[in-house]
Specification:
17% strand; Aldehyde_DH_Superfamily (chains A, B); Aldehyde dehydrogenase (NADP(+)) (chains A, B); 2 domains; Aldehyde_DH_dom (chains A, B); 21 strands; Aldehyde Dehydrogenase, Chain A, domain 1; five-stranded mixed beta sheet; 518 residues; homodimer; Aldehyde Dehydrogenase, Chain A, domain 2; oxidoreductase (chains A, B); alpha/beta
Chain lengths: 518, 518
């Protein structure tokens, strides 16, 4: 997601005016623009140091727990959150205006995510246990080697605005890092401070002391990234904020990995026959994906390549769509000014806008149009993300011309191709053109709705993330928090259980290069 | 390895004086200090651009080759290098003075490494093929997902001075990146430019055009890291040079992963009974590891924690050891001045020095001694690496006191523990104290001699590397060059073979979370 584009923009708290910040982090009701709940005190440097120091103190014990015990602990957290669902959803709806049905589902997704990582821990292959026997006859000679992955240390997590549960206090970064054996300190998002505190209290109470902590405020985020005991950071937020924190993490005396999930334009290509087959149905689905959650998704489809003939149906669908209140005032302002600037630039034509409820920080859905040639000439400007329910439809007449332009798109989390049965060859060519710039390729579907699964990849080339090797959703997101250790010629009784003779844990292991499932 | 410590030190070419650099990169014979062979022209920015552009052009075809065909190509490279062994070893011995036996073995290790990656490609689990079936009943619903790893794009590799074959033109970084499907551009090391050119001609001739290229000169290295088409960089060299290049890579408009294998102090702990059991034998093994290859290894044991009673044997062994010529003049000067400064500092006492042949850039082995308390007080200074055959022995009287100090050591590639049968409990405690700061734990052995295997980890926490998640040696080093892509609801006929129904390649895959070996 992209909320801001200034490089001084380290994090999202600057939407809290300076005068209010002295009082703490204040939540607001997006439906009214009025304060919601008491302000939460900002964490000073000493607060951050206290929480991180507690996390560092908890690391040896938490990381040494048998993985199955950590699995039990994750399930306890999930159970406690499920038990608190009613109150959490009520609080979150007041602070985010995302609606009770969506928030109830999101919290369930969040607890299912914790349970997926319990499953990952019990399955055991996440440690990549690898055993080599000795071979003195090769060059160089090989001693007995046993390798596995171990947690890095305390992890900092920056919560997102747009998922107050699933990418926040107990979200995917937290779940995967706790699963790995890393204590977690979350920098709460200022758009839902009350929800963050309530969630944090539940998570803390379900875990050993120090294993989980929370801090509030922009300066606390900077202190968290700079703290020597923090060994990796996960972040979901704006490109500008993520880049600034990535730069901080990379320029520390001891640089640490920074996993930022940033802005994404999520191109979709509809091929001619698919467009012609059912224009109204397709347009309705597009508008549905575009306006879901007031367009406040990393996976919002902001760019659609379509035949000119589809534009009337798309315009009709967007005209009929209803917007809603955005998560905070700054996002609302950025959406309004960004989309107005786009119209004023003349680089794309506003062809439709929907309506918005007359309340708080509400915005209208918008659709812009530009022909492929004009898009290619102004690609950088026209691929800027306008976080919210706005999209640009790029009209094309030749798939070949499209193939020249698609590889020039900025890195993005997803790319979708819509094709009829008879145009699978072209779908394959479009996919090959898109693949180098996307993390997930979707066929005849929409990018919103990110499944939490072993096979999910929620990541992509810069600027969609700061590290194209990793995902922030799905089972393999645990790998961000672990590094290898190899034991050479080590006595069996001193080895971790995962590497001992006889495979006492019964986990999948690789022995002399051969993967074996117990 | 650490060769230099100034931050302006982007790469190792500054050991070529400015006046000579205009003529190109000149190799020298370390046994005489005289030029060896003709100078190799430095690559200008346009040369770098041409080579990288050719690599980018080769990427789609090379990455799309079936992995088994890339395996065949790697074996062709290995065969061609083996066939050229005689000439390559002769040239390398002139430029490095490492000796024909070592260099013959090193080249064989290099070609075995290429063959290991052919094996990795044929085995197939390196792509982590992951298939999820649809499940509409969970929250969030799961579509059909198929995930695998794909190569990132052209890779830049910085060759090391101390392994003219195994960590150079056709070394581990090159082999693993080529295996992954990434074309490679190597920045040759200036200490063996002739060997680099001769090796590069052989590698190039065995591969399709553009898949492999080489550049020479410090400025070429900077241009390589900054080139927009380069998507990741591998580096083996000094901490200062590696940090400078890491900073470049991280501050690009599009930051890219930089995998630097840097300095390492490689602590070894000998417990009292192991020390008492056979002091002379132990000391001889220590001196052998310390002086192997004139101490020019990343894994050289630069720090030994031992009972005071062992020092006479250690001193005797080092006194009897013979040094040799270092790889280049700057390294030789740095070793001499660094070890002299250490003696002058009074922080540690010079207790023994060996002899050196009266030729070229030869240096003597040296052993310093400091009690544990004094070491702890000056830990930062006393853990500086003096690249070459020098070590500090830290005397201790209590294992408990040792346990307080070991976790404060800087991140390092290896840690060794020497223990008798009766002191395994203490060995376990020492290992736990060392584990957070090391990548490989060795029992009753020495760190030099890095096996190339599935279970090897050659990496570690900063400052031993810039990224503790990865290894530069062994099968899993391929992971540095690949990122995931997920295909959602994708037609089977458009999927890569690795992900198709029925597993046509017969590779290990994970289906709905369950790992299955074909």
């Amino acid at each position: 997601m992209t909320e801001a584009r200034t490089t001084q923009d380290v994090q999202d708290t600057q939407d809290v005016p300076e005068t209010r910040r002295a009082r703490g982090v204040q939540g607001y009701n997006p439906r009214t623009g009025e304060p919601s709940g008491p302000p939460i005190p900002e964490s000073g440097d000493t607060d951050v140091d206290r929480v991180v120091t507690a996390a560092a103190a908890a690391f040896p014990t938490w990381s040494a727990l048998p993985a199955r015990d950590r699995a039990d602990a994750l399930e306890s957290v999930a159970d406690a959150l499920d038990a608190g669902s009613e109150a959490l959803v009520t609080l979150a709806d007041t602070e985010t205006a995302l609606g009770r049905p969506r928030l109830t589902t999101e919290l369930k997704r969040t607890t299912n995510q914790l349970r997926l990582f319990a499953e990952v821990l019990r399955e055991g292959s996440w440690v990549e246990a690898t055993l080599d026997t000795a071979n003195p006859d090769i060059i160089p000679p090989r001693p007995v080697l046993r390798r596995m992955l171990r947690p890095l240390g305390p992890v900092g997590v920056f919560a997102a605005s747009n998922f107050p549960f699933a990418f926040s206090i107990a979200g995917g970064d937290t779940a995967s890092a706790l699963a790995a054996g890393c204590p977690v300190v979350v920098k709460a998002h200022p758009s839902h401070p009350g929800t963050s505190e309530a969630t944090a209290r539940i998570v803390e109470s379900a875990l050993p002391p120090g294993v989980f902590g929370v801090v509030h405020g922009q300066q606390a985020g900077v202190a968290l990234v700079n703290h020597p005991a923090v060994k990796a950071v996960g972040f979901t937020g704006s490109t500008a904020g993520g880049r600034a924190l990535f730069d901080l993490a990379s320029s520390r005396p001891e640089p640490i990995p920074f996993y930022g999930e940033l802005g994404s334009i999520n191109p979709a290509v509809v091929l001619p026959r698919a467009a012609a087959a059912r224009p109204e149905g397709f347009a309705a689905e597009f508008a549905g994906s575009l306006t879901l959650g007031v367009g406040q998704f990393c996976t919002n489809p902001g760019l659609l390549f379509a035949p000119e003939s589809l534009v009337p149906a798309l315009a009709a669908a967007v005209s009929g769509a209803v917007g809603g209140p955005m998560l905070n005032e700054r996002m609302c302002d950025a959406y309004r000014s960004g989309t107005e600037d786009l119209a004023a630039s003349g680089l794309a034509e506003l062809v439709a806008h929907g309506t918005a409820p007359a309340e708080g920080w509400s915005v209208e859905p918008k659709l812009y149009e530009v022909p492929l040639a004009g898009f290619a000439e102004n690609l950088a400007t026209l691929t800027e993300e306008h976080f919210g329910p706005a999209a640009v439809v790029v009209t094309y007449s030749s798939v070949d011309e499209l193939l020249d332009v698609l590889p020039k798109l900025p890195g993005t989390l997803t790319g979708a191709v819509h094709a009829a049965e008879a145009e699978l060859d072209d779908a394959g060519r479009v996919a090959e053109a898109l693949r180098p710039v996307v993390g997930r390729l979707i066929f005849n579907g929409w990018p919103t709705g990110v499944a939490v699964a072993w096979g999910m990849h929620h990541g992509g080339p810069w600027p969609s993330t700061t590290n194209a090797l990793h995902t922030s959703v799905g089972a393999t997101s645990i790998r961000r928090w672990v590094g290898p250790v190899t034991y050479q010629s080590w006595p069996d009784e001193l080895l971790p259980a995962e590497l001992r003779d006889g495979n006492p844990l019964g986990i999948p292991r690789r022995v002399d290069g051969v993967l074996a499932v117990h």
